[in-house]
Amino acid sequence: MKNNAAQSSEPKITDAPRAQKRSRPVQVADQIKHWVVERDLRKGDKLPNEAAMIAQFGVSKGTVREAMRILEAQGLIVTKTGPGGGSAVGEVSKERAISLLGNYFYFKNLSLSDIYQLRKLLEPELVANLAGTLDEETLTELRSMAHQHPEPAKTPEEEKQQHISSLVFHARLADAAENELMGFVISFMARILSDLTVYHRLYAAPNKELWERGRRHQIDLVDALEKGERSRARDIMMSHMEGAERMMNVQEMRITRQFMTE
Amino acid sequence: MKNNAAQSSEPKITDAPRAQKRSRPVQVADQIKHWVVERDLRKGDKLPNEAAMIAQFGVSKGTVREAMRILEAQGLIVTKTGPGGGSAVGEVSKERAISLLGNYFYFKNLSLSDIYQLRKLLEPELVANLAGTLDEETLTELRSMAHQHPEPAKTPEEEKQQHISSLVFHARLADAAENELMGFVISFMARILSDLTVYHRLYAAPNKELWERGRRHQIDLVDALEKGERSRARDIMMSHMEGAERMMNVQEMRITRQFMTE
DNA sequence: GTTCTAAATTTATCATAATAAATTGGATTC
DNA sequence: GAATCCAATTTATTATGATAAATTTAGAAC
Fold this sequence. Notes:
The structure is a homodimer.
Chain A: H1 6-9, H2 24-38, H3 50-57, H4 61-73, E1 77-80, E2 86-89, H5 94-106, H6 112-130, H7 136-146, H8 156-175, H9 180-199, H10 208-227, H11 230-247
Antiparallel strand pairs in A: 1-2
Helix pairs in contact in A: 2-4, 3-4, 5-9, 6-9, 6-11, 7-10, 8-9, 10-11
Chain B binds a DNA duplex through residues 7-8, 21, 23-25, 49-51, 59-63, 65, 68, 79-87.
């Protein structure tokens, strides 16, 4: 009838029923997010207290509290009791972001080769970017990690520990990335692989030669990073990735069998 | 002296040092997560109802409800009223995962060149993987998208629309990825760039030649995908990425200025 | 058989009150 | 005068019960 005039002027006519059954706590949470963006609030900036929000939004205490738990679960606020307490904006931590993304992949079937395809694309590029940019402190830290296990593992327990150490090494490199998106993705993969070692034994039988090669790679890599040799760093990492992939049991397909904890 | 043990002199130092100040709703939420993992529940499987959880965990209704909002915010459950209602496990949707990860980068300073560095690494590889694997339906869909804008944009409004269409094209490719991690990262970047166009004008002045080249790329790419020409697909995408990057205003640095909506 | 209505079930929201945690100011102590 | 303890204050946390809203199911009416 006469209503159809709106169609030409409002392209989002189909989105109109968008204001459907979102619960009140969700609506309140969204309004608070909006409020934070509008005022460009940053980490530590305080939100109105519970009583003020009850008045502001005209909802009950329980509704406000559920809204706060929503924001808290997403890592957007932190809450404290006592005078000067209340809720404040809190940057989403990398750990929280990793856990939340891990929940998504819990329901997917990521394979080790998926992970390694990405590692081979990203990590060589990461170290090429890092070459010549790291400060002495970081280099020292990396060198110390690279020298941490001077001998091949003698027990499965030791082997697991060495593998986790290696992943910490990679995560440390990722943290140094200028490109935070690249750094995040690499950290996420390291975290997935790290969790794996806790629940499964999926490494091939220890192989002294492969192990020695891996160790050599780490040491050479730090050297190349220090000297700013971009392509050498890239090549070492690529070779390292290929070696690491060969050491994994590629049979193991579903690799996220738990929800991550922060 | 009075030893007022009634206060808080119950330091649970005994077994779990980790069990510190996590609130009751968070503890309940974590227990439910464990419960889901233990029983290997999948999407649609039902959780006990509110009353049962109150009894099960020995907490109040409000506490249980806050726990449910936490899980709901993370995308892990969905809740319905009425008979046969209650809470059920719900796969985290890609859209939800993108939003949650977007919250993390809201506080970061991602640059366009960060995004494009990753796009140039991942998207050529994506199409190389896809070459020869797409069904006719998907190919038809892609072809239709590629032919959607036969003329260069005449207004900024049209230009924005064309750019978004291009991002939808890339997102569609990402959805087809076998490697879901790679697909997710590419979708995430498309989403970030898509949101940008809504809030900022950041494209260089329209350039008929560049525009024509971009259009050609999409058409040729679908052709290469259909024929299973891996390296040609890869080359086209790489060239396309370089062109797209040149069209952006690289001055624009902070690119996440809002919380994403689902 | 279809449609309407009422009842039953379950979450959603609200209101109120009691409890716990953290800070602050002041009194007490050395 | 500085440190310590204590009580008052502020704020979130948990609990309880009542009422509303949404949804399904069963039954009644036609």
